[in-house]
Amino acid sequence: MNRLRQVGCVGLLSVVVCSAAVVSAQPEAKSPRAQTQGQGQGQGMNRPAFSDYDQNGDGMIGKEEFSEAHARRVGDRARQGYALRNQDKAPSFEDLDQNGDGEISPEEFAEHQQRRR
Asked: Under a CB-based contact definition with an 8 Å cutoff, are residues 100 and 92 in contact?
């Protein structure tokens, strides 16, 4: 009887351990930012996310926000030791503001990211 209980406990322990392994092997849930930006649009490939530039969180990027975020990004990359090549080819605010309304919308930002792939 004792032997049966030991086997039962070992069996139960195996189920718990295997279940934990399966759960931990599941891909992590993506953050809302990752879900909206995707690979190469804020997630990997050295591309910033819209939220990196939208400093005040109003859903639009103004010219000042764009300039400040770009300068911060360049400074961060320099401190990380990255070579800062092709800075003259960096997109301007006007390159992203396709409709010329003085603000960059999430759609304009995403379209620009797609073109630069």
From this structure: no
**Looking at residue 83, which CATH number applies to its domain?**
1.10.238.10
What is the DSSP track for 61-92?
A: EEHHHHHHHHHHHHHHHHHTT-----GGGSPP
21-72 pLDDT, tens digit per residue, is 444 444 444 444 443 444 444 444 578 899 999 999 999 999 999 999 999 9
Q: Is residue 43 packed enough to be buried (19+ CB in 10 Å), middle (13-18) or exposed (0-12)? A: middle
Cβ pair 103, 56 in contact under 8 A: no
Report the domain count for the chain.
1
Domain extent, residue 95, equals 34-115
Overall pTM > 0.85: no
